[in-house]
Design goal:
3 helices, alpha+beta, 2 strands, two-stranded parallel sheet
């Protein structure tokens, strides 16, 4: 199956596909504006050779959202590469960070 690089920006729905690289940051911004309770956590390995390390940080810092929603963005970093889970200590930290995020933001509390 071939990857389809077309992306319809939420700002251009109904107009058609944009001939551009696939960047879903505007989609994320729209989702956060529609649901101000949405919390997004960036997970990144310091030694990631597949994804530019500071790209996620840059995108979070330049996300077109109101200042009050900036507190809904979290960043977690690990002494690992792209596959954070391949390093056992990073795997445990990743697990703990995601579990804490789910517990903290869940509206349904376990019995």
């Amino acid at each position: 199956m071939e990857w389809i690089w077309k992306h319809e920006s939420p700002r251009r729905i109904g107009i058609g596909f944009l001939p551009t690289n696939t960047n879903v940051m505007h989609d994320l911004a729209v989702a956060m504006k529609l649901n101000p309770n949405l919390v997004v956590q960036l997970e990144a390995g310091y030694f990631d050779l597949a994804t530019p390390f500071f790209q996620g940080v840059y995108e979070f810092q330049h996300l077109p959202i109101p200042a009050r929603l900036q507190n809904n963005l979290e960043m977690k970093f690990y002494p690992s590469g792209h596959m954070i889970y391949a390093s056992e200590p990073s795997l445990h930290a990743l697990h703990d960070n995601i579990a804490a995020l789910v517990k903290r933001t869940s509206t349904v509390q376990p019995k």
